[in-house]
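Example record for the data management plan.
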Amino acid sequence: MGRLQKAQRNKSSPIKVLVSVCNNPPWIHKRVVFVLLKLQQDPRYQVTIILPTWKPYEQALNRVVKDMCEVYKDHDFWLNIDADNPPINNPLDLVELDKDVIGLPTPVWHDAVKGDQPYYYNALVEKEGTEGWKPAIGEGLTEVDVVGSGCMLIHRRVIKTVKRPLFMREYDEDGIVDKGHDYLFCEKAQSCGFKVWTHFGYPCEHYVENDLHSQINAFHRVDFSQNGGHDPIIVVGPPRSGSSSVAKLLVKLGVFMGDKYLYLKDNVESGGTFEDADVAELSKQAVANNIDQQEWRRKFKKLAEKRKDKVWGFKDPRTYKLIDEYLEYFDSPVFIRCHRKKSEVVASMMRVFEWNKNKATITYDKIEEILDEKLKGKHVINTSLDELNNGVAEKKIKSIIQI
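Corresponding structural encoding:
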C-alpha cells in the first residue's frame, strides 16, 4: 500500500490539497467558479482555495510555491487552475494516483499552415532528432515530456526538491521567449528524477478570444489529402485474438476495409477474415523481400490514394512485421489492438492451424513483444473478445470514426 493510500485510511490526517487560481486576466470564467465549488464540496480531501493576483503570472505561481513551503506546509498537493481553463472532469480524482506532476491536456489554438491542424493539446513529447516537441498521443494516464500549467497537479515532494524559482521563462538573445515557464518547469522536475504525466480522460476547456475569420482560414489550409487522405485504422493482434471480428465490426460501422476480402466467396455478410486482398498481396511481397522499401511505398501510395475520400482501414496478419514502415509512412494512424487470453489464443492456433503448442506459444509471444515495443506512445485503442460481445468495443470504435 502506498503512502497516499495509507494516509487516506487515517481519518485523523486527511489528504490536503491547495487549489490556486492565478487570475490573470483579472477575472475568472464562470465555469472555473463552478469547478471550485465542486472541489470545495469533495468529501475525499481537505481543500484550500486561494486566488492570487500577483503580476506577472509567473510571480503568482512562484508565490504559491513559497506559500506551500511556508504557510501551507501541511498540504500534500498543489492544484493550479488558470482562470480561463476549467477542467471537464474532477481533477481531484487524480490525487490517488500519487504522481509527481500531472498536467491536464488543454486545447491550444494556432494559425495553421498547409497540412497542420489548427489546434493541438499542450501535452507534448520530444520530436526525435530535433529540439522541438510534438503533441503526445495516448489513452488515459500517459507519460509526456512537457505539459502546460493551465491545470496542473503537483506533489509536495516536487516542490520541496526542485530548486526555486520553479517557474521562469527562457529568452533568446533577442529577448524573445524561447521556452515558456511551464515547459521549463517540466524539464527542471525531470532533471531531479521526477516524471511528468498527462491524462487524456481529464481534458480541459479553454476560453480565449478568437477571431472566427482566422479559424475559417486555418481550417481551409488543413491538408486532408496528405499520404493519400485519411490515415487508416489498422487492426493488429496475434492470430485468433478477435481481429477478424473487429474488422467485421468496422465494416458494419461504415469503414472501408477493402474492395475484396481473402477467403470470402460471396459478400461481406458471409463472414471470414475480412483481410484486404490488395494490402495482403502487397504485404506478402514486402515480407518475402520481393520488392524493396521504395517500391513498397510507391505501390502503397497508389493504393492509399484510391481511398483518400473514405474513412478506411485494413487488417492483415503481417502488419506486425511491417509496422515500422506504416509508422514512417502515416502521420497518425489509429491502431485497434485485439487482446485475448494467451492460453485461449494458443489453443485456438493449435486447433485451427494444426500447430504444436511450442510454435503457437512462440508466435504469440513474438507478436505481442513487437506490438508492445512499436506501439508505445502511439494512438492505440485496446479491445478484447469480451468487449466485442458486450458492446464496449463498438462504442470505442464509433468514437474514433466520429473523430
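Summary line stored alongside the record: DSSP finds 14 helices and 18 strands in the chain.
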